DNA sequence: ATTGGTCGGCTACCATACAAGTACGTCAGC
DNA sequence: GCTGACGTACTTGTATGGTAGCCGACCAAT
């Protein structure tokens, strides 16, 4: 609600309406504010955000390219359910890129780099102490991004970020469940320590097992929230909720 | 020219106009038919392809997301020049993903997989014998895609393909220059042989050096065709050609 | 000759109108 | 009661109109 009319206000800072809508929708999807499987409509979103269909539509096309929504022509657009295939693919991409970057970072990281990473670690511990889940997610993102930047491959981050989005939707639920923030932080610290020591293989292994722990959580979540997942690779029947509200409102 | 009116004809097969335009433009850009640095216009493309501006515009937005065009609002859209940063990033992504996939493929590849790869190799040799460069490019693409499919990570191919597009624009020029098609094919064969033998580390090394050979060619091309490259990371002055034709036509 | 202002033409951005197609509730016929 | 045709309301796809903004040429003033 708060972002409905505030969209045009922030428009002055270089970014156009399409980019703003894209960011808003992406945030809502990854934050599970828009539930997987639910239908979204270009018209409804345009009305809610106070813009026309065009920027909304263009944003949805980009989101479809990222695999966050599924567009069925003349049928509707739906927040994509979490697909086994997509999650596995995202995990593979993330693991390959982040570990490859880390291997390049070992021996290149300066004392300043390590110090900056440790600053993020203490911030994560503070977020843990305050049970600030949203803050931890943000700091976790920054940590992994910073780690890639140290390797000199910061420009590859968007690809990792896109893959990570598929995983993060499930993690939003898994993190409060298992409450293993401190465990994750410990793994982060281990990676930084091994990076500082220049121990390439063990650093790689530590990061890899860290990423796989995150991955394994997705399966636990699947048991608890099967409605967010899709057994089909390409669901041909998205199943729309019956439009009773229109009939009920008209009376 | 031939694709101007044939666009709507092929529209029946599921894909909509936007996807068709996207494919056409992507093909033209990667094939260097549209030169890096040249200006494109929604209006001109729409008129040429016989469609409205909407699908053209939506395609350009997707191409901008892939890094193949740069959109400057109210100024114009330009085929992106090859940027040092983008090429390095693409190389890193490609190498990390393809090598990681190959490591997963070793020990998993069946005799049938190896046989199918070898079919592609003989086809490549035939293309080499006939100096069929376009055919070789297509077969090269198929080979690398198939290699990833063997590992079970076929769904990660689009990411590789997108990174590869940045490299391919330069390779289109490097390949006829160095005429090393047979060398590349030999490297392909070596990878397949080592994959069949189950020699993980040597297969990884063979593929890695193969990919780096391709990468090193880009630098050679830069010396020959500097106009295709951009020194700036973000060129603020795209430099449009002076619109003299309008003045000259008006007399 | 140089500099500053103005104006025309271009651009992409956004809004809107129309077209094509699907899903689902309704109702007639059995 | 059940089945099948039909119509309405919805969807995305495409086309087109109008707007803000930038560039570059032209021209006047210095």
* Share of residues in strands of chain A: 5-15%
What is the level-2 CATH architecture name of the largest domain in chain A?
Up-down Bundle
CATH class of the largest domain in chain A: Mainly Alpha
Largest interface: A-B, 25 and 25 residues
Q: What would the CATH topology of the largest domain in chain A be?
A: Four Helix Bundle (Hemerythrin (Met), subunit A)
Number of helices of chain A: 11
Shape of chain A: globular
Radius of gyration of chain A: 20 Å
Percent of residues in helices of chain A comes to 55-70%
E-strand count of chain A: 5
One letter per element, helices H and strands E, the order of chain A comes to HHEHHEEEHHHHHHEH
- Unreliable stretches of chain A (pLDDT < 50, length at least 5) are 242-251
Main-sheet strand order of chain A equals 1-3-2
Subunit organisation of the chains:
homodimer
Looking at CATH, the homologous superfamily of the largest domain in chain A is GntR ligand-binding domain-like
Largest sheet of chain A: 3 strands, antiparallel
* Helix/strand/pairing category of chain A: mainly alpha
Q: What is the typical, i.e. mean, pLDDT of chain A? A: 88
Q: Measure the end-to-end span of chain A.
A: 27 Å
**Overall tally of structural domains of chain A:** 2
